[in-house]
Amino acid sequence: MRAIGWAFASLALTVASTASAQMGGVVPPGPSQSQAPSKKPEGPTPEEQEEVHNAYLRSEPEVAPPAEPLAISPELRAKIGTDWMAGPPSPEGPLEHKWFPYYEERRGDYRLRMVPPLFLEHTRGLPDPSQQQYGVPKTEDTEGLYGLVYYRRRSLNVDMDVVFPAFWRVRDRDNHVLIVGPILHREAPGEHDNWLAPLFFEGERKDGGYFHSPLLLTTSHWDTHEAFTMAGPYFRSRLGTDVTRGVFPFYFGGDNGNVEGNRRTYTLVPPLLYYHNEHELDASTMTVAGPVILQDDPKRSVVDVAPLFFHIGGKPESGGVNEVHTTLFPFFHYGRVGDPANPDETLFILPGYLRRVTKHDDTLLSLFYSHVTTRDGATSLTAAGPVLPMWWNYRDVDLGVHAWAVAPFFYTSDSPAGHDWLTPLVGRFETYGESRTWWAFPTFTFHSDTTGWENDFHPIVYVGRDGDSSHTIVAPVFWDFVNPKSRTTVGFPLYWRFAEGQDESVVQVAANTVYIQKKVAGGTDWQFHLLPLFSYGEDPGGYFWNFLFGLAGYTREGASSTVRALWIPFESAPAAAAKTAGR
């Protein structure tokens, strides 16, 4: 430490000498100098101005270093942190001891006193010359343990008195804490805390506070952004300006507190089946009181008494549609859209009767007579029934379609595209130049068109052809589907055959026989199996046969062959070839 002090002293002397040399040893002028008359004119001469200008051109600007290069603000220090955890530097000086009436040792600003285990006291910052020389603490910091239960500390920033575990008095700078058993009191600038554990806890901060009382089933905390309070069944929550409150389960309410034209509020009282909300943005309200439902906005109003009465009224004066809809379920409904004298649309419903009229359509439906026109009369449908055998007549003027029927005896339809007729025993449906279908009782159909034909007896027999494809089905025992690329034939359950035209492959299962064939390089690869007794097959390179899946068998592949006995294969041809080569 002394070497460091001498180094700092030498550095200070060097800096002082350098400053004196830079100042050029200037001394104040004597009396003779002050009394000498000045010969220079007022202001710099042109030569002096040029010399000063050239000096600025030759030199670089100099920035003076900061007075404390390593100093940083408290905010920056708290942000970047530090890994320096040491306390003050070690004390300097001779070590002194004292043994009576207690043990004491001292070095520089440090002192230790103790009578173990009843008395322990440690002090730093005692008056000592080393404080100025080595930068040790300049304020006294004393802490001690007395009688094993009392801890005491006195320092510049921290004071403590602790009688463990019942009494605590702590000062940490401006923060003061006092604990006496279950009682706590804390004071700090702009905030405080008061606790009586576990009965209540209360505190206040610059921008909020809290209060908790488990015995009263109460908890509350708040700040400038949000707040929450609950006292038994009562609760209140605030987030910004949005507030929700209630008494569970009897009452709930909310208000978003918006003052910019989008305020929304609601009230809910479950025991009374009551609900009400208001939206300022679209000027709408809704109220529910039991079966009564009221809704209102600038375009329409609604009055309902569920499930019997429903009413909607438009507000054309504020941009809505001029409309009225009234329902008395299940007896009556009336609706109108447009001017009452000349409405755009009306709807009138009674049990067994409906009448709807628009500017282009007119619909009347009843149990005995019905009439419908659309597109200003371009299409029309007239029907009698359905209580009696129904007669109906349909006409589309634009498409030239005319159809009529006396159900269930006769139906006919004519149009430029075709002609259809149907009776309970036979019917014919034709699209000119495209298709013709006959139907005969009970389920026969005979169909033909430009690409093929089909004859069916539903749901058993289906036979037909479409282009290059055909099918034959006799459910549920026979299926046959044929196209240029493949054919599938099934005679359930004994016969299955699948053929592919590209490689002439065939897979056929008939009872307990299996036949497999496919086209390979040089010819055809085929095999036949009589399960489980015998198998035989050939390909361009050889053949094979097996008895009982290899109990006895033989395989020939080019120059090699394999013999099987008791399912064990033996290579035979390579050995014979080796003997021949030896000769």
What does this structure look like?
- 10% of the residues lie in helices and 53% in strands.
- It contains six helices and 52 strands.
- The chain has a 52-stranded antiparallel sheet.
- A hairpin with a 3-residue loop joins strand 23 (300-305) and strand 24.
Topology:
Elements (H helix, E strand, L loop, with lengths): L1 H21 L8 H5 L10 H13 L15 H7 L15 E3 L4 E5 L2 E6 L3 E6 L5 H5 L6 E6 L3 E5 L3 E6 L3 E6 L2 E6 L2 E6 L2 E6 L3 E6 L2 E6 L4 E6 L2 E6 L2 E6 L2 E6 L3 E5 L8 E6 L4 E6 L4 E6 L2 E5 L3 E6 L3 E6 L8 E6 L3 E7 L4 E8 L2 E6 L3 E5 L2 E6 L4 E6 L6 E6 L4 E6 L3 E6 L2 E5 L3 E6 L3 E6 L3 E6 L2 E6 L3 E6 L2 E6 L3 E6 L2 E6 L3 E6 L4 E6 L2 E8 L2 E8 L3 E6 L2 E6 L4 E6 L2 E6 L2 E4 L1 H10 L1
Antiparallel strand pairs: 1-2, 2-3, 3-4, 4-5, 5-6, 6-7, 7-8, 8-9, 9-10, 10-11, 11-12, 12-13, 13-14, 14-15, 15-16, 16-17, 17-18, 18-19, 19-20, 20-21, 21-22, 22-23, 23-24, 24-25, 25-26, 26-27, 27-28, 28-29, 29-30, 30-31, 31-32, 32-33, 33-34, 34-35, 35-36, 36-37, 37-38, 38-39, 39-40, 40-41, ...
